[in-house]
């Protein structure tokens, strides 16, 4: 299955680039990733994307929507990452962490990646085999400096560095960097009923957790400041081999293994580590209380959401609609970019219709993809009014035709049972 997943990503890419006709023949191509790899690009569920603006009932700004589109697009990355169909979202799924990501030779454990590896960028290889645990980006705006070693204070600089240095991409246009930053700054943690806004435990947490909180305030809170998202925004060497930017403890329950190199399998191992390091002399009772506390702080009350055709189509419609802004501004370059990235989204939907008898669905999707391409051509010819009409028409077409996909959806990789059997 792993082999097929990534070759499907290649299909999506070729479809996005307009070579949909060759997509079929690539379905059996499995030479892209080393054996044993799993980038899990076809998941049946994923963390819910939680945006501050929409949670508060506001309307999502254009730049945030554009950021989501860019975050999901391999076209921004270069080299091997792009060929594999990797995007920011592959690793930071829905803004959370993809704990099953595994590329042989680049990951030592699932959920770990050596970003500075020649596999992704020959020039960035630091010659060391050093895998880093993929962080959850929700709440990332509170957590500068960025990178496990805190090497960038600016999220914009960090993001550019990820694209250009780690993944050998071209320098992205300024608007795309702005958009990626705007999007990431919106990502929020799910609310945790165990925690008050100031980071103190509420009555919802167990008695053991409350006992653990007392220990934590004494021994740990100087660095993991509860009222500041459990970080101090500083680097420390806590006996793990190098200076590391203090990580948040929110969302811990879904981000095992722990420590920057994934060296601690569970929270008990982390507590043992600090117990030894700081000479705290914890008894079994203390460790149990502290584990209960970390469980309460790191709880993610919200289950992952299923990946469905309906959700993907709603998102597709909205992403395509982003092109209306540059069409109004008479900006053919940005229109073109949005159209290309959106066609990749169609490619992702295409990936899930994998069977021979899905050809009508595949043809429909290819037609949608081409029709979007035609809108970019109109913009290129500076026929902006016609392009705006065509885009509105494209969305109407999607509304009218989307039910044609329903029949095939049951046997497609949107059906978790089919997906599980395919794996
Ligand atoms: C192959 C998996 C992978 C991809 C693709 C990827 N990242 Fe990451 N990301 C990581 C890992 C691993 C780290 C931790 C490494 C580090 O901190 O140096 C990280 C760290 C980060 C951080 C720092 C978080 C913090 O709290 O310091 C940000 C921000 C980020 N990534 C954004 C992005 C963006 C934006 C993209 C797309 C342009 C992207 N990532 C693509 C794996 C990935
Ligand atoms: C001197 C500052 C400091 C103190 C004190 C401290 N920590 Fe940390 N903590 C860190 C740093 C830095 C890391 C990252 C280390 C690494 O990844 O190599 C970390 C990592 C962790 C992690 C792993 C998080 C993850 O996502 O991988 C947990 C859990 C944790 N600390 C809990 C505690 C507990 C519990 C205590 C008290 C017993 C404590 N820390 C005391 C700075 C501190």
Q: Can you name the CATH architecture of the largest domain?
A: Orthogonal Bundle
Distance between the termini: 4 Å
Helix content: 40-55%
Strand content: under 5%
Shape: elongated
Runs in which pLDDT lies below 50 for 5 or more consecutive residues are 1-9, 17-31
The unique ligands bound to this protein are: heme C
Structural class: mainly alpha
The side-by-side strand order for the widest beta sheet comes to: 1-6
What's the short version?
The protein is an all-alpha fold. It has helices at 2-16, 23-26, 52-55, 62-71, 79-84, 88-91, 155-166, 174-186, 207-219, 267-278, 284-297, 309-321, 324-328, 332-352, 359-380, 384-401, 406-409, 416-422, and strands at residues 45-46, 112-113, 132-133, 235-236, 244-245, 305-306.
Which descriptors apply to this entry?
6 strands; mainly alpha; Cytochrome Bc1 Complex, Chain D, domain 2; 18 helices; binds heme C; 423 residues
């Amino acid at each position: 299955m792993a082999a097929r997943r990534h070759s499907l990503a290649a299909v999506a890419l070729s479809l996005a680039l307009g070579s949909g006709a060759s997509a079929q023949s690539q379905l059996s191509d499995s030479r892209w990733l080393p054996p044993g790899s799993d980038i899990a690009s076809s998941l049946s569920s994923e963390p819910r994307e939680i945006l501050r603006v929409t949670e508060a009932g506001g309307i999502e700004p254009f730049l945030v929507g554009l950021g989501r589109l860019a975050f999901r697009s391999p076209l921004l990355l270069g080299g091997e990452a792009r060929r594999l169909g990797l995007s920011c979202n592959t690793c930071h799924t829905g803004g959370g962490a993809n704990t099953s990501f595994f590329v042989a030779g680049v990951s030592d454990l699932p959920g770990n990646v050596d970003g500075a590896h020649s596999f992704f960028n020959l020039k960035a290889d630091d010659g060391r085999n050093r895998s880093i645990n993929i962080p959850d980006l929700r709440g990332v705006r509170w957590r500068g400096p960025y990178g496990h070693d805190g090497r960038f204070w600016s999220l914009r600089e960090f993001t550019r560095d990820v694209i250009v240095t780690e993944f050998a991409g071209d320098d992205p246009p300024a608007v795309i960097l702005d958009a990626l930053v705007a999007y990431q700054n919106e990502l929020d943690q799910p609310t945790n009923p165990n925690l008050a806004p100031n980071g103190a435990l509420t009555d919802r947490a167990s008695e053991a957790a409350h006992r653990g909180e007392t220990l934590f305030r004494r021994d740990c809170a100087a660095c993991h400041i509860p009222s500041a998202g459990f970080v101090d925004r500083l680097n420390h060497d806590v006996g793990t081999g190098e200076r590391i930017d203090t990580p948040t403890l929110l969302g811990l329950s879904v981000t095992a293994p722990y420590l920057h190199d994934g060296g601690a399998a569970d929270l008990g191992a982390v507590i043992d580590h600090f117990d030894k390091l700081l000479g705290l002399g914890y008894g079994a009772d203390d460790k149990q209380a502290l584990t209960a506390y970390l469980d309460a702080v790191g709880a993610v009350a919200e289950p992952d959401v299923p990946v469905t055709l309906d959700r993907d189509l709603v998102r597709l419609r909205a992403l395509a609609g982003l092109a209306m802004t540059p069409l109004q501004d008479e900006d053919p370059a940005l229109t073109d970019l949005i159209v290309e990235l959106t066609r990749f989204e169609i490619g992702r939907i295409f990936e899930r219709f994998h069977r021979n008898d899905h050809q009508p669905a595949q043809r429909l999707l290819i037609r949608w993809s081409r029709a979007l391409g035609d809108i970019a051509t109109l913009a290129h010819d500076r026929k902006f009014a016609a392009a705006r009409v065509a885009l509105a028409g494209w969305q109407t077409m999607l509304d009218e035709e989307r039910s044609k996909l329903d029949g095939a959806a049951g046997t497609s990789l949107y059906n978790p049972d089919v997906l599980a059997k395919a794996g």
